[in-house]
Amino acid sequence: MEFLSAILGMVPCLYDYTSKHTVYIRDLKKNLQALSKEMKALNNLYEDVKARVEREEQRQMMRTNQVGGWIREVEDMVKEVEGILQRGDQEIQKRCLQGCCPRNCRSSYKIGKEVSEKLVAVSDIIGKGHFDVVAEMLPRPLVDELPMEETVGSELTYDKISMCLKDPQVGIIGLYGMGGVGKTTLLKKINNDFLTTSIDFDVVIWVVVSKPSDVGKIQQVIWNKLQIPLDIWENRRSKEEKAVEILRVLKTKKFLVLMDDIWERLDLLEIGIPLPDAQNKSKIVFTTRSQDVCYRMKAQKKIEVTCLLPKAAWTLFQKEVEEETLKSHPHIPRLAMTVTRECNGLPLALVTLGRAMAGENDPSNWDKVIQDLTKFPAEISGMEDELFHRLKVSYDRLSDDVIKSCFTFCSLFSKDWETSNDRLVELWIGEGFLGEVHDIHEARNQGHKIIKRLKHACLLESCGSKEIRVRMHDVIHDMTLWLYGECGKKKNKILVYNDVSRLEEAQEIQELEETEKMSVWDRNVQMFPETMLCPNLKTLIVMTCNKLIKFPSGFFQFMPLIRVLNLSDNDNLVELPSEIGKVVNLRYLNLSHTKIRELPSELKNLKNLMILLMNGMISLQVIPQGVISSLTSLKLFDLYGGVKVSGVAETLLEELESLKNISEISITISNALSFYKLKNSHKLQRCISHLQIYRWLDVISLELSSSMLKRMEHMQRLCIYRCHNLKDVKIEMQGQGTQNDLTLPNKLSLREKYFLTLSEINVGDCHYLLDLTWLLHAPCLELLHVRDCKSMEEVICDEDEDEVYEMKGKRDIFSRIKHLMLENLPRLKSIYRHPLLFPSLETVKVCKCNSLRSLPFDSNTSINNLRKIKGETSWWNQLEWSDETVKHSFAPYFKIYEAEAN
């Protein structure tokens, strides 16, 4: 009966089996096997694609949406197919007649259809799983965080930069400063601060340029940040084509480009960077060690990054050396402050030394480091590799050996010593660094250009508001000594002593035999060694040895090669040994500001002497006749502010006139004979550089001929001092009378300019002098200092003021003046009766000029360069102004005169 029921049950199935749908039931087993096989293929493909994706993601790339969707589709399909395969296997096992007939045709049909459909779906997924690209570059953040340590003491400079970033008129900002001063750290701070503050740019790009600059590498960094598609970028083969692509993208964005460590001008358009302007509001900030680069990059704002102030320097050093070390012994904080002072605020030095001393708990080791800092700082751990080699890059970038020699010479000065630009150039000339000197004036110009380049390279620093002196940072000084000693290999090649006892020790151990340059700065020394064996010494500087009275007679005996000898600023030095005449290779001799009373006659043997400086030798009484005229190579002679004995100056002038090679003279004149000698010598007139007329007591009217003044083409400084009876200075117009004769020809002659090179005038203690109207003829005057002239009522006085005012173009007077100083002029009422432009004016100092009620200022007077107006409060408060607006414009520049402030 059961068998019959089975047969009867198969009848409808057999009918369905012959229909088109029976294929799902018939082929179920075969399809299950095919689906299982396809799933294995899909799974293999899935694993391959996933592995490719993971590799790309490790390279900071992001899977494409297409690949991500496919992977999710595969994972969903795997779950679904696993269930279907399981149910299909169960259905096969339930069949009878050896698996040929299903027990439930409807169930078997349903599962068979699902298997067939999934087989098609899996095959379709496999077909879609072959990808050329599985991942793309991640979208870069607007700002990439840069690793950096906490900044110390840079708040003021940072605030200046922040203001510039907000200023629509400033597009390019240059940060310059010496190596190790913290420029890169400051630039990183600007970058990272955009991570936490609201960003006003579409993209911030950080580029390290370094040297030599590589346009291709810079373009690659910018491409990476802008995420220009790879296929487009690779199709741009040349730098020019890539620049076009970068330009196309950046022109659509408001960008900030931060460029670190630039050493030379970069052509921004060559890279593809559009020039920032008020329309695109983009910005470029770069760092450099050279101020020149700021100019070449056309930076609208140039900001110097300077060394830290003492408080901030101490904070940074404490941070590096750590509190545990500082508290380990009661003496260490005091010693640590000494080390900090030696770093002179240079962050890189503070960090290097702080890390070197971290964990050093023994005060005696701190003492040793302090001694090494004054003698051989390169021997301190980290100083050579981490500090000097990094600073040396600035030296390596100097353009030629001449500039490098001039730079390393500066280390011969004591730390913190400020030297005159002119005196430094004269030393370079004496050394022979500037080549064979035929024209001293050309050599000076060359030297001043070198100083400018060294300052712009941040290897020398300007001193004071007038920028006529320079100094070298302490750490740069140490690095330069190390450099001259062949990077520490021959540290005795150049020696700088602050203690003569060290000189005696060096002599005992024969340290001086390899010495080429030496300087001594001992304020307490009274006597030098009897002799010094220095067979290779070429340069000797002995300065500020204020207790030194004389040198031993044989002191210079064993210095056969010496070329440069500087004995200036030894206040009590009264004698120069006669053996100086044996130093026959000497090219430069400086005796300025000593109390030497008599020059040795043996000086005449110095046939190679080119430069003889005796500025301010107020005690000098005897210059043996024939000594100066025997110096046949002499080119530069300076006796400015010296020689009080009557008759010396005129004899000197005659001897100087006889010298064939003389080209620059600075001298003091005190009587009519000397003045007329100068007035009658065209050669001397052409050589005069600095002229002082001092204590010429019987001169009433100083008459200078126009032809004489025109020939004085190199005169830079004029001082008229203590000429108590002098009433006026007259310019004799040849064939036209004097300046004070204002007939028409002379009025027209006021347009003439005679003191074409005169930049500095000092007038003092001339009690009857009424005015300085002759200054109209000094168009290039930069400094005017007038003091103790009791009768002076006006600086510039015109009898026919309106006509002269018109002739001078109303504004041309004092157009170059930078520094104006008026002191103790009780009757002075006017500088000039009309307002002037003063386009170059930087400082004004007025003291004890109570009758001066107005300044020649109005709304057109420039304040672009003005830094300060110093004077007494009472004088300032009584000044009369053309209107309140002018007063308010100049009020912020007023500073109280120091004497009153104290």
How are the secondary structure elements laid out?
Blueprint: H1 2-17, H2 22-26, H3 28-58, E1 61-63, H4 65-94, H5 105-128, E2 135-137, H6 155-166, E3 172-176, H7 183-193, E4 203-208, H8 215-226, H9 230-235, H10 239-250, E5 255-262, H11 268-271, E6 283-288, H12 291-296, E7 301-304, H13 310-321, H14 323-326, H15 332-343, H16 347-357, H17 363-374, H18 383-396, H19 401-409, E8 419-420, H20 421-431, H21 440-456, E9 461-463, E10 469-471, H22 474-484, E11 494-497, H23 500-508, E12 517-520, E13 539-542, E14 564-566, E15 588-590, E16 611-613, E17 636-639, H24 648-658, E18 664-669, H25 672-679, H26 682-687, E19 688-694, E20 701-705, H27 706-711, E21 717-721, E22 728-733, E23 737-738, H28 744-749, E24 760-764, E25 783-787, H29 801-807, E26 819-823, E27 843-847, E28 868-871, H30 873-878, H31 884-890, E29 894-896, H32 898-901
Parallel strand pairs: 3-6, 3-7, 4-5, 5-6, 11-12, 12-13, 13-14, 14-15, 15-16, 16-17, 17-18, 18-19, 19-21, 20-22, 21-24, 24-25, 25-26, 26-27, 27-28, 28-29
Antiparallel strand pairs: 1-2, 8-10, 9-10, 22-23
